C-alpha cells in the first residue's frame, strides 16, 4: 500500500481516537461493509500505518506521580556516543519519550517518577551508567494543559 485514500484516512482517524471500536463500528463510521473494512485495517497494520492499539490510563487515579522534562547534553557529539545513550535509554522504563534535538542540547526526555526523590534516583543512575551524559537540566510539570495522542490527520495529510 503506497498511497492512502480517503477511506484509509477515515479508518486511521477513528482508530487513533477510539482504538477499542469493533470492526463493525469502524465499518459503519467509514461507510464500508465489515469484510472490506477488516481487509483495509489489516493492510494498514501490515504496511506499518498502525503500530498498535493501547489504552490511555488515568495515572492520577492509579498512583501519585510527577512528570519531568529533561534536557540532556552528551560529552561527545559522535554517532557512537549517540548510539550508546539511545540504547541505554531504551532500558529505562520511566523514560516515556526521548528525542534527539537540534540546538543547545542533544536530547529532550519526558520522564515519569513517583516523586522528586525517585526522579533524583533515576538521574543518579543515569549519570552512573557511563552513557556519556555531560550535563542535564530538568523541568517539573506543574499542570498538564493539553495531552493528546490524536494527530490531526485531516489538516496534515497532503497525499502523495
Automatic annotation (TrEMBL):
Gene3D superfamilies, A to Z: 3.30.70.920, Winged helix-like DNA-binding domain superfamily/Winged helix DNA-binding domain
GO molecular function: sequence-specific DNA binding
UniProt keywords, alphabetically: DNA-binding, Transcription, Transcription regulation
Domain HTH asnC-type: 4-75
A single BP term in Gene Ontology: regulation of DNA-templated transcription
One GO CC term, this protein: cytosol
Protein name: Transcriptional regulator, AsnC family
Organism listed in the record: Bradyrhizobium erythrophlei
Taxonomy of the source species: Bacteria, Pseudomonadati, Pseudomonadota, Alphaproteobacteria, Hyphomicrobiales
Amino acid at each position: 500500500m503506497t498511497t492512502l485514500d480517503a477511506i484509509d484516512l477515515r479508518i486511521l482517524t477513528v482508530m487513533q481516537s477510539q482504538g477499542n471500536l469493533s470492526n463493525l463500528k469502524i465499518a459503519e463510521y467509514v461507510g464500508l461493509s465489515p469484510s472490506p473494512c477488516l481487509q483495509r485495517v489489516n493492510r494498514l497494520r501490515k504496511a506499518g500505518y498502525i503500530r498498535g492499539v493501547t489504552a490511555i490510563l488515568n495515572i492520577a487515579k492509579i498512583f501519585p506521580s510527577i512528570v519531568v522534562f529533561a534536557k540532556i547534553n552528551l560529552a561527545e557529539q559522535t554517532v557512537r556516543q549517540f548510539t550508546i545513550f539511545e540504547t541505554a535509554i531504551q532500558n529505562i522504563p520511566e523514560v516515556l519519550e526521548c528525542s534527539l534535538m537540534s540546538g543547545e542540547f542533544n536530547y529532550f526526555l519526558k520522564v515519569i517518577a513517583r516523586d522528586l526523590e525517585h526522579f533524583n534516583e533515576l538521574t543518579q543512575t543515569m549519570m552512573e551508567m557511563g552513557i556519556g551524559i555531560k550535563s542535564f537540566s530538568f523541568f517539573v510539570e506543574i499542570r498538564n494543559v493539553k495531552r493528546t495522542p490524536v494527530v490531526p490527520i485531516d489538516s496534515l495529510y497532503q497525499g502523495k
